[in-house]
């Protein structure tokens, strides 16, 4: 991937060439399309108006999952398609995705009973082609409590035990973008599509972009243009001269993060809420996070926030399933909220609207893709790039090759090599001035790219800094190899610190700004803006505003 320091070169390239495909939107959907298209031999440009993954793709439940609950809505094909993708996503990026056993407890009068759980999970295994040692187990009430003693014992009948995958959505998106760039795609963050360019026959042949870092205008010409802007899809389509009838319905989902000392969950659980929805509680890095809510949303898509009502709803759900846990909103360390870009279906409530994806093309030739799941990004990309390939002339381009294409950092040799890889990097780290534990943590985050992070650590080991060497090396890596431009890019989407390590976020944020200032030569005005951004984000995530 390019460095944020080399933006100007990227801008010039975008201005200069005519591309086969221009993708608007750098969430997981746009990233997947860029990777699929470039690896078939197409020339590809991608623009993202914020940072990569700053939209919904850093605000999900962070699971690569088939959507078990959609079986209840008889969305069998979607569950089958997405379910099968889980292992592919995992094997191609072992460093960002890991299998976890999920517990689905069932109580008297709950959503699922013993028979429906058993049948549902069996069907899930079958549809998703789950391998033998990961197929569902059915547990008695006692066995369920052994797995997770905090679960409500009253009325407990047993539990289903099955495998899902935990991921870091923003890092997954960034590893896809990095791979696409490695293969030749030209991707730029902080570049907003403002209008479309048309030929004499009213066909879209590109877009006018503004680079919001330099305020330069860029005209990108492309044979095919794809609108992959998630919740912004309707806004971007409105820029197209000819519209069509499909509309999005946005719903908001909130997650809360609680320290393990308050909610010592040891096992991921998928459980009923009092109003008969289902939410996840997932242990991660010394914290437990719980979500999600699902409510219609009409606010500012850039800044969806958790309201006190959202937080109370999730706390009530925790209390009803884990009666021994006494958590208050003051103990919620951080939150995040995301907006689902769902295809409008008249008369349905938020949780009933299908999560399936759809692709459509306007009369002016603009492709739009919306709906879907993080998990299904590769398949969604395949579907739309198949259509593009057909229109560009199939014979010129190869078939989709992403099924067995490792993402950036994923060349570990598959999941079987993972533990050996971590052990090796743990030992290697010592030679670069890092501890074994730091080396292991970095290897888990960056996969095979950890070698570059180690090299930065070695170069920086003689510098005096109030930041730990590992963190300093991560900043250098993020700026030089992952196009992090603002401190928020680093603290939220490159490291997830805002959500899962609020203590260090607060402790180090000022120094992170200083280091990035040296690397990226921020003006004084910019620093004021960035500091303000950090304060607002911290306030939103920690519910400071609503508690005060
Ligand atoms: C609360 C919640 C939980 C979820 N949990 C899961 C889960 O656990 N597993 C799962 O598989 N899926 C999950 N999903 C679904 C998944 O997160 C989304 O389907 C996916 O992230 C959508 O990605 P996207 O790229 O389409 O949209 P986004 O990630 O929103 O990307 C669109 C991008 O387009 C950019 N953009 C907009 N306008 C312009 C413009 N004019 N010019 C340039 N760029 C522009 C935006 O800045 C944005 O970054 C969840 C969703 C939510 C809301």
Question: Explain this structure to me?
Answer:
This protein has helices spanning 7-16, 28-39, 76-92, 114-128, 141-147, 169-182, 233-237, 308-321, 377-392, 418-429, 436-446, 450-460, 469-481, 487-494, 497-500, 502-520, 524-541, 544-547, and strands at residues 18-24, 44-47, 63-64, 97-107, 137-139, 156-167, 186-188, 191-198, 204-211, 216-227, 248-259, 268-272, 278-284, 287-291, 295-296, 332-343, 357-361, 367-371. It has 548 residues and is α+β, with helices and mostly antiparallel strands. Strands 3, 4, 5, 6, 11, 12, 13, 14, 15 and 16 form a ten-stranded mixed β-sheet that branches. Helix 2 crosses helix 9 (377-392), helix 10 (418-429) crosses helix 11 (436-446) and helix 12 (450-460) packs across helix 13. It is globular and about 65 Å long. The mean pLDDT is 92. Residues 24-30, 47-50, 54-57, 59-63, 65, 192-193, 228-232, 236, 253, 292, 338-341, 372-375 line the site of flavin-adenine dinucleotide.
């Amino acid at each position: 991937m390019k460095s944020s320091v080399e933006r100007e070169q990227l801008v010039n390239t975008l201005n200069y060439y005519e591309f086969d495909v221009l993708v608007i939107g750098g969430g997981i959907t746009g990233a997947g399309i860029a990777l699929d298209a470039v690896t078939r031999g197409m020339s590809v440009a991608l623009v993202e108006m914020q940072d990569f993954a700053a939209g919904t793709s850093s605000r999900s439940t962070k699971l690569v999952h088939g959507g078990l609950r959609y079986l209840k809505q008889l969305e069998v094909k979607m569950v089958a398609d997405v379910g099968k993708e889980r292992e592919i996503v995992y094997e191609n990026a072992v460093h960002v995705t890991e299998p976890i056993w999920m517990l689905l407890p069932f109580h008297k009068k709950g959503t699922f009973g013993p028979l429906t759980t058993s049948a549902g999970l069996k069907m899930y295994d079958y549809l998703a082609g789950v391998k033998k040692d990961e197929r569902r187990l059915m547990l008695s009430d006692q066995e369920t409590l052994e797995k997770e003693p905090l679960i409500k014992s009253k009325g407990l009948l047993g539990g289903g035990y099955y495998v899902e995958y935990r991921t870091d959505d923003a890092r997954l998106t960034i590893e896809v973008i990095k791979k696409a760039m490695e293969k030749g795609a030209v991707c730029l963050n902080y570049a907003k599509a403002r209008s479309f360019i048309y030929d004499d026959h009213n066909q879209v042949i590109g877009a006018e972009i503004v680079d919001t870092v330099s305020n330069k205008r860029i005209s990108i010409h492309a044979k095919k243009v794809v609108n992959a802007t998630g919740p912004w899809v309707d806004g971007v389509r409105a820029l197209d001269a000819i519209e069509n009838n499909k509309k999005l319905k946005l719903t908001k989902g909130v997650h809360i993060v609680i320290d393990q000392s308050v909610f010592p969950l040891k096992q991921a659980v998928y459980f009923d809420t009092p109003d008969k929805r289902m939410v996840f509680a997932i242990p991660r890095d010394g914290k437990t996070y719980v979500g999600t809510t699902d409510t219609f949303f009409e606010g500012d898509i850039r800044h969806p926030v958790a309201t006190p009502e959202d937080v109370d709803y999730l706390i009530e759900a925790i209390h009803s399933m884990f009666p021994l846990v006494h958590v208050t909103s003051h103990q919620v360390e951080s939150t995040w909220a995301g907006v689902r870009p769902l295809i409008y279906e008249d008369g349905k409530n938020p949780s009933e609207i299908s999560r399936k994806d759809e692709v459509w093309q306007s009369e002016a030739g603009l492709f739009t893709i919306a709906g879907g799941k993080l998990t299904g990004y590769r398949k969604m990309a395949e579907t739309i790039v198949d259509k593009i390939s057909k229109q560009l002339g199939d014979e010129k381009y190869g078939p989709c090759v992403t099924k067995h294409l490792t993402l950036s950092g994923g060349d570990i040799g598959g999941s079987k090599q993972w533990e050996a890889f971590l052990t090796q990097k743990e030992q290697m780290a010592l030679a670069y001035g890092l501890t074994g534990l730091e080396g292991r943590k970095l290897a888990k985050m960056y996969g095979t790219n950890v070698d570059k992070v180690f090299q930065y650590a070695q170069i920086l080991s003689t510098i005096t800094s109030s930041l730990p060497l590992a963190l300093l090396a991560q900043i250098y890596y993020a700026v030089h190899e992952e196009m992090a431009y603002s401190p928020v890019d680093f603290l939220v989407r490159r490291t997830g610190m805002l959500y899962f390590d609020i203590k260090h976020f607060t402790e180090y944020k000022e120094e992170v700004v200083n280091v990035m200032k040296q690397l990226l030569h921020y003006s004084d005005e910019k620093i004021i803006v960035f500091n303000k951004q950090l304060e607002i984000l911290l306030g939103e995530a920690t519910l400071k505003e609503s508690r005060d």
